[in-house]
Amino acid sequence: MLVIGSGGREHAIAWKIRQSKLVEKVFVAPGNGGTAEFNIPIKVDDVKALSEFAKENHCFTIVGPEAPLAAGIVDYFSKLSLPIFGPTKNAAMLETSKSFAKEFMKSHDIPTAKFGVFEDSQKAIEYSHTLDGKVAVKADGLAAGKGVFVCSSISEAEEAIKSILDKKAFGEAGKKVVVEERLDGTECSLMTICNGKNALAFGSAKDHKRAFDNDEGPNTGGMGAFSPTDDLDSKTTEEIMRRITLPTVRAANFHGFLFIGLMLTKNGPRVLEFNARLGDPETQAILPRLKSDFPAALLAMESNSNVELEWSSDYSCTVVMCSQGYPQTPETGDKISGIQRANRFDGVTVFHSGTQKRGEEYFTNGGRVLGVNGIGKSLPEAVEKAYSGVAMIRWNGEHHRKDIGRVA
Ligand code: AMP
Question: What is the pLDDT of residues 143-154, one digit of tens each?
Fold first, then answer.
């Protein structure tokens, strides 16, 4: 199997795949320090070189990040009859264009916040005035998670609209703006595995986006996650699958992992966003609980066979350890100690993101450096385990949140 990507999500996927009886060999392109023995030096956007490697080595390919999906890697591989698990470029637009996703939901009756799409700031502002002061403003394209403004006043909404459309704060990604109703409720997410016709719920997880404790500081790619969450009981999950996932998967002929960000409102679940891939760090919390053979489940799903996943009843928590300066200007090149010791601790697994292996030593090589996972019979036990692992690992300037899995 060939795993494309270089984050903690891809390390967790490769780690899980290695437990499969079906898989002879795993490759990761380009990978990180944690996957060093499986790495091949091909960048995620070098679709041609990836396809040549996959052909030569008879690989079944899994795509981690959104960039190669947006570049059409699945279309390219499929034309060459190379097996790959992921959505086409068109289906991936559910993530890459917020206006496309919103129009898609509207035309297929999928519950989401009411909205308008605008290129003209004056018209966008006029529409925002119709939303009773409850407004969210979003740049249309990929903006590294920074293009969304959940506004607490009309003047904030006006400012956000002007910064996106007039001041071009997000360049081309802000050519259009989505202005939508701000929803109240509990936020959660559901990951699903899809084959164009059917979908399977693939675990729930909650991540912690802000950089500092008590949800303070700037947004990040994610500072930690725990799984499962109590927000999604089986009745709510069933409703989401029936009213949201299945109509989406069938209308978009979506293959791969569909990650659905939701607000559970008093009127039922509403879609906040789609991602056309697994979440990171959520995957690092979910996969350690999966007992089934992961590649076998993906292959069965692709051939439209019946798939049932078996999950451990344990809880799982992953704490992300970051380098100094993350998320603004992360420092790299610091020597990391204690990884092997933490990995030997019962119930702890260390997933690498921004690391580099030199000889037998590991060095920081990015903002989010490691995800330390703990497994336990209860959430507090899982949290305790993860932090025991974190306490064994050190480098200059390391920082992490102290409240992952301890706050809702
Ligand atoms: P998105 O990338 O669209 O999921 O937005 C990022 C975050 O902004 C979400 O995780 C929510 O916390 C928040 N958000 C987005 N849209 C809304 C909305 N309509 N109402 C309330 N919060 C929202």
Answer: 866 789 999 899
